[in-house]
Every structure is written in structure tokens, then in C-alpha cells.
Design goal:
575 residues; alpha+beta; 4 domains; six-stranded antiparallel barrel
Length: 575
């Protein structure tokens, strides 16, 4: 085994929250948190919020209940990377050749820098001072043998003596491995498996036989065991850069905007990814180099940043390469990243280089799911269509703020980072309660809601219902379009028959010619929109479940109905 090299790690605690506070112009004394992932749970918390009882993994409502003054933002990788650039610039005044593991975490070679500044303790003190003076952020620096030991040492603000990293790591829980790759679900599942098997500490993992770990847990297990032993995750000797794994492009005219430069970066990322894929290689580091032209003097200067990818186990996709380049370009083309109030210099040239290339890990494809390759093939097909028809011709659905299901759907060009028109995490008084409907009609369809006596159901201004809904009738519509899926699933498509001899149902559409008894209902929910909104009016919504026998084979069918000025309409359907 190759012994580990001395590595310094610079860590800014709670960086996603710090970056959000900087963008919002708020100070560190404000209680704040960042939410993201499934369910919108808290993923990062500031120190004032922690003192009020807010913890990672909490739901938004619980966190706000513990801290009513809590400021919440959604996770934004681009924001985190853009605002982290000044920290990297400050660290480069002390040590050259740093690399970004992720926004908020820097890795630096400590050998020569420690000798230059006197000792590893002096190096850590100089780094923290320069970051504090130049950016105003507090950071912690740790030095140890190996990647994981350095990361944990930074969290402890400690310097681990040479040769003692394995003992330093030994008593720690195996779950601390997630600090090396926080967003890796496969690693989280593997740690949980080890816990059930009795491998609870890093010492337990380090003591397992190498051959058994490789046979039972594959490349990911071998990688984790090397970290547990305080070793480097890859050989410290840098490989010579292969010339063919460097791609470059000149931008004429120079790009002043991030989206223009990202368009060129996307082409370069695809070329680099194709080269790696064709050779069966993966890269451990991605070097991003830009040639910027001073807007006043016309002089050119080189901007360069090295990103650690840690994707030798499964390959770095073109989309993930593009994301890293876009984050870095946003940092370079933002005036705040310069730290001196200068005007950002336009990008005239861009170069991407794959460093520390190695054979890609042999991963067994799954029979189904993302690992089977369907997602990659689908993305490539969509990108080909987009290249033929234009960027705005292929749209994808994204959730935004709103009260009714149609208002909550935003169509954006595929692959574009477009800010939502209305923030989905804001409170929306009058919004419909969950669950959300699965099929949203492009336009409301006229309908009738009748009581047991066959009279129309009316909702008055006090939200009193004239009678319990007993029947829903949806007349056939000539040339009606199909509904749009609200959950990304397949539609119930098919063209409407237009009232043929069937006398009722449309071609595969459960709402065409519907005449069914109401099994259950809930509501009404009022929505009073102001005159300046696109559809300023007063409406009430009603959820009903009807007997769907004979309608596309459904035994029961959920409908979302709305009433405005006494006229009922069918808005959406529930699965």
C-alpha cells in the first residue's frame, strides 16, 4: 500500500448557510438554514439556529417551530461555488496548487508550505488569518495523513502528527465516512449495511481483510477502507497529463455573461467526456483554465482552478463536468469574487483538462433503474432533439409557487438554469392541500356538479354548499387536448373521439363524456385572486371521488373541480 501524504484541509463551517447569508446581505448573527433533498429537509444550519434547537434532517415546519425567526433558503450549488471563489483566492496567497473538494472545503499540499511558514501550526494560522482578513469568513484548518483524516482534523481544528492518522481515525464511527462524500447515497447505504453487520467504527473497517472487502463490497468498499486506514484514496504521484485529454476553445467575441460561456463549456465537457469514455478512463481531478481579457487595458490574464472529482468509481458525466465549470465561471464573472470591486473580465478562452486519469471502475450495470443506462440514453436523445430544434423547443416541468396545480407548473428549456417565477417554498394562502393531482388538464373543461335531486350544486359567499354533490357530468369536448402529467409519469393520452357512436367515453380519456356518481368529496377551498393577477377572480375548489366503473377500467377516480360565478370546471385528476 502507498503511504499517505501530508494534506492540509481548509473548511468553512456551514458554508451553504454562509453563502446564502452573503447573497442576502445578512450577518452571521441571523439564525438561518438551508433546505434541500427529498422532502425539503434542513441540510445546513447556522450557529445561532443550532443554539435555538434547529438540527440537520429536520422538516421545515419543525425547524420554524423551534426558531420562529429562522431564515430559510433552498440549496443552490451554483451559489455556494460562486461565493466560495473569494475564499479560494485568499488561500492561494498562502499556498499555491490548491484544489476544491466541494464548495466550503479546500485541500492543499502542506509539505513545502509548512516548511516555508515554519511549521504546520503556523501554516494553519496563516490560512485562517488570510481568509478572515480578505473575506471576513471564519474557517478551520486541519493537517493529517490522508484525505479523510485531514477533513476530520479540519472539523476539529487540529494538526494530527505524522504517522498517527490511523489511530486518530480508529475510534470514530464508520458513519464519518460521509464527510468525504456527503451526497453519495451509495456510500450512505453501505455504511448502514456495515452497521447492521457489526462494523461500527473505522477501526473495525480497517481491520477487515483486503480481499474480503473487495469481494463483498467492491470498489466503493476498497475506497472506504483506504480512507479508514488514513491512506490516500489515490496514489500521491501525479500522472503525466495526456495531451489528448485536454480540450480548449476560443470565444470570439469574449463572453461577458455566464450563460454564453457555459454554452461553450458544455461543448468542451462533452468532448472531454467522450475522450475519457472512448479510452475507458476516469479522472480524479478537473482543471478549469480561462483566459480573461481586461476590459480597460486589453491585457490577458489566466484564471485557473482545480476541482477534485472523486468519480474514479463510476465516471464523471458531461453534465457534472458542465456543472463544475458553470459554478467556477459564475465565480470568475461575478464582481464580488474579485474582492476589490473590479469589473469582471470577459472570458476569451476556455480549457478543460482531465488530470490523474486512471482506468474507470468496473461497475456491474443494474437490470433496471438509473444504473441500467436508461437515463443517459434518454438525456442524449433529448439533447439531440434540442440541437436540431433549438434550446427553447424542448421544455421540462419544474415546480414553482402557486395556489392551484396549473399555477404551480413552470415550463423551462431543458438543461437551463432558469430561476422560478414564484418561489415554491414561500407560503401561499389558499393553496390546495396535498396530495397534488397526477394529471393537470391544459385548460379547464366545463362540468356539472349535481345533488341527489339532480339540482346544480352552488357554493355561496359563506362557502355553504347548497347540497351534497351526488353526481358529476363532464360533456364531451370536440378536439380536446390531453392533460399534462403533474408527476412526470406517462399520460393517459390519445385523441378525443369527438362524439362518435360510442356515445360517451373519449379515446382513452377518463374525463371525456364522464357521468358518474360521487363516492366521497372534500372542500370547498376558496381562492380569492386580486385583479392584477393573470386570472384575477374568486374561485372555490372541490375534491371528489367518483365511481369510475366503465371509465378506462377505473373503479374509482379522483377529480379536482373549480367553481367561478356558479360555473363548474374540471381542473385535474388524481390517481
Amino acid at each position: 500500500m502507498t503511504s499517505a501524504t501530508r494534506t492540509a484541509c481548509l473548511w468553512v463551517p456551514d458554508w451553504p448557510v454562509v453563502a446564502a447569508l452573503v447573497v442576502a446581505g445578512l450577518g452571521p448573527e441571523v439564525p438561518a438554514a438551508v433546505t434541500g433533498g427529498p422532502g425539503g429537509r434542513v441540510v445546513a444550519v447556522s450557529a445561532p439556529a443550532r443554539s435555538a434547537g434547529v438540527r440537520r434532517g429536520m422538516r421545515r415546519r419543525e425547524a420554524q417551530g423551534r426558531c420562529p425567526d429562522l431564515q430559510l433558503w433552498t440549496a443552490d450549488d451554483a451559489r455556494d461555488a460562486r461565493e466560495f471563489e473569494p475564499v479560494a483566492v485568499a488561500a492561494e496567497t498562502v499556498v499555491s496548487g490548491l484544489e476544491i473538494a466541494r464548495p466550503g472545503l479546500l485541500l492543499l499540499p502542506s509539505g513545502g508550505a509548512a516548511r516555508y511558514h515554519g511549521s504546520e501550526h503556523d501554516l494553519a494560522r496563516e490560512l485562517t488569518e488570510q481568509v478572515a482578513v480578505r473575506t471576513g469568513h471564519e474557517c478551520q484548518v486541519g493537517v493529517a495523513d490522508g484525505f479523510l483524516a485531514a477533513v476530520l482534523a479540519a472539523r476539529d481544528d487540529a494538526v494530527v502528527p505524522p504517522g498517527e492518522s490511523r489511530d486518530y481515525l480508529a475510534p470514530r464511527p464508520a458513519a464519518t465516512l460521509v464527510h468525504a462524500r456527503p451526497a453519495d447515497r451509495a456510500l450512505t447505504e453501505l455504511v448502514d449495511l456495515w452497521r447492521r453487520l457489526g462494523v461500527r467504527t473505522l477501526a473495525d473497517l480497517a481491520a477487515l481483510p483486503d480481499a474480503a472487502v473487495a469481494a463483498r463490497f467492491g470498489d466503493l468498499g476498497v475506497w472506504a477502507q483506504r480512507l479508514a486506514r488514513g491512506q490516500d484514496v489515490r496514489p500521491p504521484a501525479r500522472r503525466r497529463l495526456v495531451e489528448d485529454l485536454t480540450v480548449a476553445e476560443e470565444l470570439d467575441p469574449p463572453a461577458h455573461r455566464v450563460d454564453v460561456a457555459t454554452f461553450a463549456a458544455r461543448r468542451l465537457a462533452e468532448r472531454l467526456h467522450d475522450d475519457l469514455h472512448r479510452r475507458g478512463l476516469a479522472c480524479g481531478r478537473l482543471r478549469i483554465t480561462a483566459r480573461a481579457v481586461d476590459p480597460v487595458t486589453g491585457e490577458a490574464r489566466t484564471l485557473e482552478r482545480l476541482w477534485r472529482t472523486d468519480d474514479t468509481l463510476g465516471g464523471l458525466s458531461a453534465a457534472r463536468i458542465t456543472d463544475r465549470v458553470r459554478w467556477q465561471l459564475e465565480g470568475w464573472l461575478t464582481a464580488s469574487s474579485l474582492g476589490r470591486g473590479e469589473q469582471p473580465a470577459p472570458i476569451a478562452g476556455l480549457t478543460l483538462a482531465a488530470e490523474e486519469v486512471a482506468p474507470a471502475g468496473a461497475l456491474q450495470p443494474r437490470l433496471w433503474g438509473p444504473g441500467a443506462g436508461e437515463d443517459l440514453r434518454a438525456r442524449r436523445a433529448v439533447e439531440r432533439v434540442q440541437a436540431l430544434l433549438g434550446g427553447d423547443a424542448v421544455l421540462t416541468v419544474r415546480l414553482q409557487g402557486g395556489r392551484d396545480p396549473r399555477d404551480r407548473v413552470q415550463l423551462v428549456p431543458y438543461g437551463e438554469q432558469v430561476p422560478p417565477e414564484r418561489e415554491p417554498d414561500r407560503p401561499w394562502p389558499g393553496a390546495l392541500p396535498p396530495p397534488a393531482p397526477s394529471v393537470v388538464l391544459p385548460e379547464p373543461v366545463p362540468a356539472r356538479v349535481l345533488d341527489a335531486q339532480g339540482r346544480p350544486v352552488v357554493v355561496d359567499v359563506r362557502l355553504a354548499v347548497s347540497g351534497d354533490p351526488a353526481r358529476v357530468v363532464v360533456p364531451e369536448q370536440e378536439g380536446a387536448d390531453g392533460g399534462a402529467r403533474g408527476d412526470g409519469g406517462p399520460g393517459r393520452g390519445g385523441a378525443v373521439s369527438g362524439g362518435g357512436a360510442s356515445g360517451g367515453a373519449s379515446d382513452g380519456r377518463p374525463w371525456g363524456g364522464l357521468d358518474a356518481a360521487v363516492v366521497d368529496w372534500a372542500g370547498p377551498w376558496p381562492v380569492a385572486e386580486r385583479w392584477w393577477t393573470p386570472r384575477g377572480r374568486r374561485r372555490v375548489f372541490l375534491q371528489v371521488v367518483v365511481d369510475g366503473s366503465g371509465q378506462d377500467g377505473e373503479l374509482a377516480l379522483g377529480l379536482l373541480l373549480s367553481s367561478a360565478a356558479g360555473v363548474w370546471s374540471l381542473e385535474a385528476l388524481y390517481d
